[in-house]
Structures are given as structure tokens and as C-alpha cells.
């Protein structure tokens, strides 16, 4: 099973969550669309310590840090959904999206359409800020409306029990992990969280 990591906003913590998942599962990493520098692929390479993970090249590497559709227009590139093909590997892949699920790729296509094409289980990263309940539930509703499979939620940031409890109660989705606000992000921090989340994936695999 491959996993598609999406967020409720641009700065939800998708890359950190993806690094943790790659470390926990020793999975490969793929960022289909990168808008601007530094590349998230380089961040992943700097944070994981296992020797199994392979970081695959982006399908579209755009120069401007903006929405993919806007960045592509500046670069005079047309993003074509059919060009996105999951890299060949015998390993699982953690796929990191760009922004949230309704971010546009072009005038007619959204990130959520890419999710559907890649047919991977979705992991939603929700940072905890004022208004995050609304944004998280709207994202979940958009995913469920399209009948996409959601593995669960990774919360990111200062703990907010009321928000977390309501989101999980209303959505009926499990909390996979809570990443607390860390002063610095290091490979040791990533490994710490990887050890916490790994059993959830291996237990579900064994249950099958």
C-alpha cells in the first residue's frame, strides 16, 4: 500500500510527516510536483537515517514558490495529469502532495484528482490553529465525497485536546500521531516519531 500525504493548508507539516513515515516504514519518497526551492526531496534526504528509502525525482520541478498552476504558467509549462506515473519500485512509496487537496494543477484539475489517479491511501496532516477544525473537516468531506480512502490524521503543533477530540469524533477517523511543536527538526526527532507511529502500520498489515 502506498500513502499520499496531504494537508489542510500549505504549511501543515506534510514534509515532516512524510519524513517520519518514510523512516517508520522504510518506504520510498516521491514528491510529484515541487514548486520553488529548496526542494522537499532534499529535506527528506537530510532527515531520514535508514538505508532503504529511495527518493524519486519529481515529475514537475517548477521554479516559483506558488500554487502549481500559477508556477507552471510562469515557467510556461502545462501540467498534464496523465504524466504522473508512480515510480517503479518494489517498496512502498510515501507520496507528498502540494498544498491542500483542492489546490489547482491547471485550470481544470486539482490535487485531489491526482490522488484519485494514484489510488493511494491518504494520510491527512492537520496543524492545530484557530480555525483548523473547519479546515480539517472540509478537507475530509472533500476526500470522502470522492470516495477516497483515508488512513487517518496526523496532528501537528501545540496540543489542543478539544479540537483534536472533536475532529476525530465527528470524522470517525483515527489519530495516527501528534507531532508536537519542536524547536529544531533533526534526524533524531524524526526517528523518535517514526518509532511511535510504525506499530500502527505493521499491526494493520498483520491483521490482514
TrEMBL record:
Protein name per the record: ATP-dependent dethiobiotin synthetase BioD
UniProt binding sites for substrate: 35
Sequence intervals crossing the membrane: none
Binding site for Mg(2+): 15, 40, 96
Pfam families tied to this protein: AAA_26
Organism domain of life: Bacteria
Keyword Cytoplasm attached: yes
Family assignment from sequence similarity: Belongs to the dethiobiotin synthetase family.
Gene name per UniProt: bioD
Amino acid at each position: 500500500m502506498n500513502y499520499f500525504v496531504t494537508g489542510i493548508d500549505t504549511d501543515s507539516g506534510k514534509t515532516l510527516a512524510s519524513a517520519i513515515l518514510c523512516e517508520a516504514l522504510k518506504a520510498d519518497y516521491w514528491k510529484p510536483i515541487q514548486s520553488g526551492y529548496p526542494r522537499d526531496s532534499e529535506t527528506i534526504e537530510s532527515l531520514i537515517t535508514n538505508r532503504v528509502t529511495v527518493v524519486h525525482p519529481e515529475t514537475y520541478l517548477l521554479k516559483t514558490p506558488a500554487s502549481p498552476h500559477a508556477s507552471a504558467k510562469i515557467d510556461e509549462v502545462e501540467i498534464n495529469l496523465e504524466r504522473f506515473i508512480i515510480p517503479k519500485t518494489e517498496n512502498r512509496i510515501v507520496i507528498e502532495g502540494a498544498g491542500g487537496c483542492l489546490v489547482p494543477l491547471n485550470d481544470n484539475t486539482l490535487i485531489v484528482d491526482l490522488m484519485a489517479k494514484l489510488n493511494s491511501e491518504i494520510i491527512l496532516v492537520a496543524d492545530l490553529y484557530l480555525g483548523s477544525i473547519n479546515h480539517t473537516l472540509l478537507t475530509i468531506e472533500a476526500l470522502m465525497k470522492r470516495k477516497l480512502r483515508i488512513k487517518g490524521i496526523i496532528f501537528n503543533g501545540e496540543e489542543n485536546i478539544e479540537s483534536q477530540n472533536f475532529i476525530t469524533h465527528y470524522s470517525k477517523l483515527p489519530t495516527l500521531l501528534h507531532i508536537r511543536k519542536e524547536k529544531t527538526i533533526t534526524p533524531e526527532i524524526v526517528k523518535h516519531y517514526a518509532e511511535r507511529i510504525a506499530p500502527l502500520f505493521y499491526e494493520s498489515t498483520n491483521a490482514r
